[in-house]
Write a structure and sequence with these properties.
Layout: E1 12-21, E2 24-30, H1 34-40, E3 47-48, E4 55-56, E5 69-73, E6 79-84, E7 95-98, E8 113-126, H2 130-142, E9 148-151, H3 156-159, E10 173-176, E11 179-184, E12 189-195, E13 202-215, E14 219-221, E15 234-236, H4 237-247, E16 254-259, H5 265-273, E17 277-283, E18 288-295, E19 301-308, E20 321-324, E21 327-331, E22 334-336, H6 339-343, E23 348-351, E24 356-359, E25 368-370, E26 402-404, E27 409-410, H7 411-419, H8 425-432, H9 445-456, H10 460-463, H11 477-481, H12 498-503, E28 507-511, E29 514-519, H13 527-540, E30 543-546, E31 551-556, H14 560-567, E32 580-586, E33 592-602, E34 605-610, H15 615-629, E35 636-639, E36 644-650, H16 654-661, E37 677-682, E38 685-690, E39 699-705, H17 709-720, E40 726-727, H18 730-739, E41 787-794, E42 806-809, E43 823-831, E44 836-844, E45 853-857, E46 863-869
Parallel strand pairs: 1-7, 8-9, 8-13, 9-10, 13-25, 15-21, 16-17, 16-21, 30-40
Antiparallel strand pairs: 1-2, 3-4, 5-6, 5-7, 11-12, 12-13, 14-22, 18-19, 19-20, 23-24, 26-27, 28-29, 30-36, 31-34, 31-35, 32-33, 33-34, 36-39, 37-38, 38-39, 41-44, 41-46, 42-43, 42-45, 43-44, 45-46
């Protein structure tokens, strides 16, 4: 055992635990990392390298670890495919196994929970060390009202108040323990991953917006490249101090220090405290270097070869000596951790004294600053020797000079890349793969740049470093996704009236992210029974529907009318205030994208409705054209879908119901014509009423602020009770609209459908330009044999066509494959109004085939014969739209 009898600020010696590594059980303490516990148990070989298969040991004590990659099974069975042993916090019963740089995906989905949280703060401090703590305290002292958030990568037990000097959360500073910033983006947006007390089975992804960001990310010690610099027993000098002081672990018995700076002086003192013999300190500033290492039969370090440098800067072969040691501590200097600074597009400069890249100027986000080691303030470093790589003793063999330990990339690879003519460090990175592993070159990146600069005869600052990209540390897909799987894969949206639908026994369907009532079955009713009843009641008396899910977009600005003229195929600039107009929207290819009714609220304001599932896409479409194509237009678009609850009152008795609800509103056909809107007080609620119909019946769409939606729904049911009002769902709505030939975008259309195909050429302006106009003039868009929207009546009035069924000629030979297809069924229903089945279809040259008969072959055999009709199969004269009643008080027919 290499556990010291005393010491170890991070471990609790009163709480022993056990764990397994590679099938062998070992003791440890609460607070140990897997790496510290392995060293305490004399496990020095923890992995083999990814390509060369060389034994590798623990190299560092933090997230920069390139060697000790392990798979982990946490108590309870949750597994993680690849983690760094230096960051695995041990739990009793944990099991781990070594990896050769390659993880494996587990077949079972981990039961862990990963959440997302959002935070908005005045000051964000990234890094919980001394500099970060001081920055957080100073920010709070300067303005106690500011929200200050401190991200500390250390767990709660290590970075707790008193140890870090940070006041407890709630005293003006909130500290997030076990949290690492992953990326810094535009406008002060930062993402961060937080590990929960049960590592990897729970976690949180933070989305943070900050007015000011302080980088206190510290610095990483870097290695020196020499022959066989990858053996187990070779580690960064500061890591040895961390294991001794933090975990009470003796990482070796006899040590050699190879350094270029003064930060190894305290390390020597720590070695003495731990009883580790310091055989020699090799200081490059004195003209001595480590040139090679020797290994025992297991590949572990057993001796270090040391030589002075000659006048040419090469090792003096004649004066090489061997020093027995099982621990070689290397310090080539320190690199400020500037990845996040660079991600924020801050510039870097090469500091000659420090021999490292340091933050220079902030990027577009000006409220960005670095402090402490992250800013290049490395206390006690002294003068740094210009030593990045030690040449081989003999010949020109650089194949064991490992630059990137995780990628097994060597100085030979660098020389080969530069010899091939590559000069950009970005190209060199990709050629050699240096810096492309999970550690993102934390120990190898700057060293590789310096070696490349030497070979190119350039300054290191001129060569630069490869682009730093998020995430800063590896993070699981589960944590990035949060709980977005299973039922939580997509947000579930419900209308303000949802609970009332549940109380009525509604069966719901998913429409986009919305839960919409599909039908309201009574006891013993099937879906077909319920839909026929709902449709019949709506046609004969009055029905009510929750239409709150319709997309609603507020269009404002002096150029709003001009903008809508360009967006829609028909004209809106001439629309009068108080009027509504149905519009078609196309993509640049001329194909129908969406439809809806837009109403003019004022000279410079319109209310647009879209299909439920396409609302977000339409808003994105509008924003793209406003921002990128027509930035000169004075117009803006705002989603107001959630602002309004919408209840549609539909049917010949709708006027009676609305008159009861809004006694001050003139609901007559003359006073409130079709396709107009009115401000009104409905059921005591200020709102808007639209005379719009998606059924062909007399209809009013009542809009009130969403928090009054449930109250409005209940008021409508009460006012309609004397008339037998019936709630109906989306299935009955589809039947009603299909009877009138109204297409559903995405059902009758498939991305290859023009307005002309739908029989809506009258809605396409011939006098103005609009998105997609030119494409609609292409020869392919005006072919006479394009599929067109028509109706279908099965010869057998009880035969229900499957949606998607293909249609062929009546005399088609079904034994010859493929059978020439003429079109397909887009919608198919049973109609209470017609007393039979019917369908809509897209058929080649369909309007010229009206009266013709076709066949629909069925899966499994058989056919259904159909007659092609116009797309409007019910009330083609629109007599019912204004609520005409006959002398018996029944709907006009």
């Amino acid at each position: 055992m290499s556990r010291l009898a005393t010491g170890g600020s991070r471990i609790d010696r009163a709480r022993p635990i056990t764990f397994e590594f590679d099938g062998v059980a070992y003791p440890a303490f609460v607070g140990d990392t897997l790496a510290s516990a392995l060293l305490a148990n004399d496990v020095t070989v923890v992995a083999t390298s990814i390509y060369d298969g060389r034994p590798r040991g623990i190299f560092s004590a933090g997230p920069e670890e390139p060697n000790a990659l392990v798979g982990v099974e946490w108590p309870g069975g949750t597994t993680e495919s690849m983690l760094r042993a230096t960051e695995v916090e041990l739990l009793d019963g944990l099991s781990a196994w070594p990896l050769a740089g390659r993880g494996r995906l587990e077949a079972e989905v981990a039961p862990g929970r990963f959440d997302h949280r959002h935070a908005h703060v005045e000051v964000l401090v990234i890094g919980g060390g001394a500099s970060g703590s001081a920055a957080a305290i100073a920010a709070h002292a300067a303005n106690p009202d500011d929200r200050v958030l401190l991200l500390d990568a250390e767990p709660e037990s290590v970075g707790a108040p008193g140890g870090s000097g940070v006041p407890p959360s709630g005293a003006g500073i909130e500290r997030l323990p076990a949290t690492t910033a992953l990326g810094v983006y535009d406008h002060g947006y930062v993402t961060a991953a937080q590990r929960h007390p049960t590592p990897r089975t729970e976690g949180r992804l933070w989305h943070i917006r900050a007015a000011r960001i302080v980088m206190a990310t510290g610095a990483t010690e870097r290695p020196i490249v020499f022959a066989n610099d990858d053996r187990p027993g070779i580690m960064l000098a500061s890591a040895a101090s961390s294991y001794i002081a933090g975990y009470g672990v003796r990482p070796g018995t006899t040590a050699v220090i190879f350094t270029t700076n003064d930060t190894t002086d305290p390390v020597a003192a720590d070695l003495a405290t731990a009883g580790i013999a310091l055989a020699e300190t090799v200081d490059a500033r004195r003209g001595e270097v480590v040139v090679d290492t020797l290994a025992d039969d297991a590949g572990r370090l057993r001796a270090v070869r040391i030589a002075p440098l000659d006048a040419a800067g090469s090792p003096d072969e004649a004066r090489v000596r061997e020093v027995a040691a099982d621990l070689l501590l290397v310090s080539g200097g320190w690199n400020p951790n500037v990845a996040l600074w660079s991600q924020a597009r801050g510039t870097l400069r090469f500091d000659d004294a420090l021999q490292a890249f340091v933050p220079d100027k902030p990027g577009p986000f000006r409220a960005l600053e670095a402090t402490g080691r992250a800013a290049g303030v490395i206390a006690g470093i002294g003068m740094v020797a210009l030593t990045w790589i030690v040449p081989p003793l003999t010949g020109d063999d650089w194949s064991t000079h490992y630059v990137d330990l995780q990628r097994d990339a060597t100085a030979a690879d660098l020389r080969r890349a530069l010899g091939a003519g590559l000069q950009s460090i970005e190209h060199v990175k990709r050629y050699t793969t240096i810096g492309t592993a999970a550690d993102q070159g934390k120990t190898s990146g700057v060293v590789a740049s310096a070696i490349a600069a030497s070979l190119l005869g350039q300054e290191v600052g001129a060569v630069g470093v490869p682009t730093y990209r998020p995430p800063l540390i590896p993070v699981s897909f589960a944590q990035l996704a949060g709980r977005d799987r299973g039922l939580l894969l997509d947000p579930t949206r419900v209308t303000p009236i949802h609970d009332a639908h549940v109380a009525l026994g509604a069966v719901f369907e998913d429409v986009g992210q919305w839960k919409r009532p599909r039908y309201y079955p009574k006891p013993g009713e099937s879906m077909d029974d319920a839909v026929l009843r709902e449709g019949s009641a709506t046609r004969s008396a009055v029905g009510v529907m929750d239409a709150s899910t319709l997309g609603k977009i507020d269009i404002q600005g002096p150029d709003a009318g001009v903008f809508l003229d360009r967006v829609y195929t028909n004209t809106f600039s001439s629309l009068k205030v108080g009027s509504c107009r149905y519009g078609l929207m196309c993509r640049v290819d001329g194909m129908v994208f969406d439809d809806g009714v837009t109403s003019r609220l004022a000279d410079d304001r319109f209310h647009m409705t879209t299909t439920t599932g396409n609302a977000a896409a339409v808003l994105d479409h509008l924003e793209e054209w406003i921002q990128t194509e027509w930035p000169d237009l004075r117009v803006r678009a705002t989603s107001v879908t959630e602002h309004w609850a919408t209840v549609a009152v539909v049917g010949p008795r709708a006027r009676d119901v609305v008159a009861t609800l809004a006694p001050d509103l003139d609901v007559t056909a003359e006073g409130f014509p079709f396709m107009t809107w009115r401000d009104a007080v409905v059921a005591g609620i200020a709102g808007r009423v639209f005379r719009i119909s998606f059924s062909g019946e007399l209809a009013y769409e009542l809009n009130v602020p969403s928090w009054y939606g449930r109250s409005l729904w209940e008021a409508v049911l009460a006012a309609g009770a004397p008339h037998g009002i019936t709630p109906y769902g989306t299935e009955a709505m589809h039947v009603l609209r299909a009877e009138k030939g109204y297409p559903i975008i995405g059902q009758e259309t498939d991305g290859t459908t023009t307005p002309q195909d739908l029989g809506m050429d009258g809605l396409v302006s011939k006098k103005k330009d609009f998105i997609g106009r030119r494409s609609q003039r292409r020869p392919d868009s005006v072919r006479p044999d394009r599929k067109q929207l028509v109706g279908l009546l099965p010869v057998d009035p009880d035969a229900l066509l499957p949606e998607g069924a293909q249609l062929v000629a009546l005399d088609a030979d079904l034994t010859r494959v493929p059978v020439p297809m003429l079109g397909h069924v887009t919608s198919s229903y049973r109609s209470a109004a017609l007393g039979r089945t019917f369908a809509l279809a897209m058929i080649k040259g369909g309007r010229d085939r009206i009266g013709e008969r076709l066949l629909a072959p069925m899966v499994g055999g058989g056919t259904i014969e159909v007659e092609v009709t116009g797309s409007v199969v019910f009330d083609p004269e629109n007599r019912r739209r204004d609520g005409e009643l006959n002398e018996h008080g029944q709907p006009a027919t």
